[in-house]
Amino acid sequence: MLRGLVKGDNVFVPTAALRVTVRSGVDVAALLVTEQGRVRGDADIVFDGAPAHPSGAVRLSGGADGDEGGTVRLDADLAGVEEGIARVLVVASTEEGALRDARGLSVEVSGPDGGTIVAYEVTDAGSETAMVLAELYRRSGGWKFRAVGQGYADGLEGLAVDHGVDVTEERPEPAPQPPPEVPEAPQPPAPRPAPPQAPAKTPEPPAGVLTAPAPVPVPAPVPLPASVTDRAFGAFFEPHTLSGQGSDVITVEDLPPGPVVVELAVRTDGYTGVWTLTPQNKNKDLLVNSTEKDFRGRLLVVPEDGPLRLKLRADGPWQARVLPLAAARRLTEDTLESWGPDVLLHTGGTTDVAFHYRGDSNFIVDTYALAGHDDPATLPKARYPYINEIGRRREALALPEGPVLVHLRRADGPWRARLRQPSAVTGWIRRARR
After folding, report:
1. Is residue 49 packed enough to be buried (19+ CB in 10 Å), middle (13-18) or exposed (0-12)?
2. Could you tell me which of 201, 265, 261, 272 has the C-alpha nearest to residue 235?
3. Are residue 309 and residue 385 in the same domain, yes or no?
4. Are residues 158 and 26 in the same domain?
5. pLDDT at residue 349 greater than cutoff 90
6. Claim to verify: residue 124 and residue 273 sit in the same structural domain
């Protein structure tokens, strides 16, 4: 006999092989969760990319031929569910539109004989794109069915994270490495011993003469892949190296038009600030606003008409190198570890970039898709989404097919980055983001 439930109702069901039928053409999945409400790993997620749980107790299948409304069937052998699993969640999601557009959304449970035991019709779905429709859960030595109807405004990703799904897929990290040191300003050479027959004292440098900082070691530019045209990265030019002491204006003439990378290292115990300057000598964009000791980083700069001009505020020796955009370091599946702001380049297919930021201040990352951008003298509009967070964190950012510039605009601290190939679970979650 059909027993219809309303949201929040629950009823005992046989501890047997049950069939759960979801109607209305939505995507269906099952999450097998512990008493704490969390999956133990990706294997506890049953969806169209992994339609059977390793235990064999929960399986997903489409509806039978001739079914109307797009039914999906979930077979749950409750007697075979592992002891560590406390609940089996029945989840619905949409790739397009909202769940309120899924007319006739319902869940029906039938027994081994095919007869309907209980049913629940969802009548209050709203703008959500993901929902826990119902759950089968252990109670008093048996199993019960509950009509849940809990929607997630942040979609399938929010639902997954709420139940312990790792959407960042972080790999084991290498042992922490200390950040690179900014070199001390070189000292005058020590006096050489004079021959015994003619002792002499090496003269000291004149008072007030400043010594330049030692060169800052930087990675050599990586050759461009053969599949990438020079035009996609702007013009090539020989690096320009400048150095000085304290606050200054960094000026480089005769650069080809377009974005450049400015690599900066400052030996300091105080504040470092960098601004772009307009042709009228006014501060424009704030590129660096750091109180970290010994600032170092790579900045993405688009010069105004004319020479590159940056206003530097610093209280110690500094060195800057101006590099072509193609000198940006490449993102790969190997971990890239660095410190401070940076300019990275992705030249492969659609993927994610995973970050582990270990600083205490702002972490801001923008991306620029260069594919199809025909003006090498400018940057395209920054893509959405982006990262804008504060403090230590792990974040992942979806990247389209390259070439893509990944600009760590603020990162006053050490960080790691790597590309990762999404697992089937990540692909399932991402599919529902569109």
Report:
1. middle
2. 261
3. no
4. yes
5. no
6. no
Asked if residue 277 and residue 146 are part of one domain, the reply reads no
Q: What is the DSSP letter of 340?
A: S
Q: Which pLDDT score is estimated for 431?
A: 65
DSSP string, 11-57: EEE-SSEEEEEEESS-EEEEEEE-TTS--SSGGGEEBTTB-B-TTSS
Both structure tokens of 130: 């993901």
| The token pair that represents 413 in the structure block | 């601290």
CB of 391 closer than 8 Å to CB of 360: yes
Last-in-domain residue among 292, 308, 327? 327
d(C-alpha 314, C-alpha 274), whole Å = 9
| 43 secondary structure, DSSP code | G
User: Distance between CA 120 and CA 108 in Å, rounded?
Assistant: 6
DSSP type of residue 230? G
Average pLDDT on 300-313 reads 90
The DSSP secondary-structure symbol of 78 reads G
Residue appearing with tokens 């629940």: 120
* C-alpha–C-alpha distance, residues 284 and 304, integer Å: 10
Q: What is the per-residue pLDDT across 194-208, written as a single tens digit (0 to 9) for each?
A: 444 544 444 444 433
Boundary (domain end) residue, out of 126, 142, 162: 162
